[in-house]
Amino acid sequence: MKHYAGDRTPDGCEVMVLDLNHEGGGYELDPRNDLRNHSPDGFGWGYSGSGPSQLSLAILADALGDDKLADKLHIDFKNKVISRLDKDRWTISEEDVRLAVAELAAWRKR
Q1: Which residue pairs from 22-28 have beta carbons closer than 8 angstroms and sit at least 24 positions apart in sequence?
Q2: How far apart are CA 35 and CA 1, in angstroms?
Q3: What is the CA radius of gyration of the chain?
Q4: Is 108's pLDDT higher than 80?
C-alpha cells in the first residue's frame, strides 16, 4: 500500500510516494500539470488555495489511477482532506485517500 508524505522545506513543499512495490521504495509525486495547472509554483497544503488544489489532483490521480475521476473530485478532496493537513509535515495512506473518495462519492449522490 502506498503512503503519501509531505514535508515543507526551505526550498518549498515536497511530496513523496512511499511504495515498497516500486523500485527504490518510492518516488516523487507527479504534480499532474498535464491535467490542470492550478499551481505552477508547486504543491501546498494546510489552507485552501492553488497549491492544495494541485496536490489534491496529483494524489487522487496517483492513488485512483483514474484521471477523469481525480479531476472531478479533487476540489472536494482538497476541502475535506488537503486543506486540513498539518502545515509542516504529514502522511496519508492510499487507503485513507480511497475512504475519503468513497465518502465524497456518497455525499455527491444525495
Answers
A1: none
A2: 24
A3: 13
A4: no
Residue 14's alpha-carbon distances to 22, 30, 102, 104, in angstroms, are: 19, 11, 26, 26
Cell numbers 509525486: residue: 29
Angle between helices 94-109 and 67-80 (to 10 degrees): 90
pLDDT of 109 above 80 = no
Find the mean pLDDT for residues 95-110.
87
User: Residue 29: which of 69, 1, 56, 50 has the closest Cα?
Assistant: 56
Q: What confidence tens digit (pLDDT) does each residue in 14-60 have?
A: 999 999 999 999 999 999 999 999 998 899 999 999 999 999 999 99
In three-state secondary structure terms, 104 is helix
**What are the sequence ranges of the domains in the chain?**
3-109
Q: What's the predicted TM-score (pTM) here?
A: 0.94
> Residue 69 is placed in which grid cell?
475521476
Print burial letters for 60-79: b (CB count within 10 Å at least 16), e (below 16).
bbbbbeeeeebeebbbbbbe
